[in-house]
Amino acid sequence: QVQLVESGGGLVQAGGSLRLSCVVSGSTFSSTVMAWYRQAPGKQREFVGVINSRGTTNYAEDVRGRFTISRDNAKNTMYLHMNGLKPEDTAVYYCNRAVSYYNWGQGTQVTVSS
Q1: 4 contact partners, CB below 8 Å, separation of at least 6
Q2: What is the pLDDT of residue 113?
């Protein structure tokens, strides 16, 4: 069974940076298109960005230019580098496949203070 473990969240001031990690076990990670999602309080989970097996990325419009996704296939790990954080980025961040989701992990909380 595939397990997703997100980490790296925390409390940061507006304009600050964080790096989130997503460790994937039990799957052929290197060939899997992976994505980051987030869910703010009272809102539906939304797409943040995606990375394919070759490292090509695409992002939601409101994070483009501030967030960068990378992956290390040798470590079965995907990263989300977040710069220029804004209070509206406050959410629980999740990783998963881009399609045909695995069971969701617990996520990691990111809180951006103004």
Answers
A1: 22, 23, 24, 94, 95, 96, 102, 103, 104, 105
A2: 97
- Residue 10: CB atoms within 10 Å: 13
Name the pairing type of β-strands 77-82 and 18-25: antiparallel
What is the predicted pLDDT for the residue at 15?
A: 98
Tokens representing 56? 């090509």
Per-residue pLDDT tens for 54-75?
999 999 999 999 999 999 999 9
Structure tokens at 85: 């954080």
Strands (E), the chain: 3-7, 10-13, 18-25, 34-39, 46-51, 57-59, 67-72, 77-82, 91-97, 108-113
Which letter, b or e, does each residue of 31-51 get, where b requires 16 or more Cβ atoms within 10 Å of its Cβ?
Answer: ebebbbbbeeeeeeeeebbbb
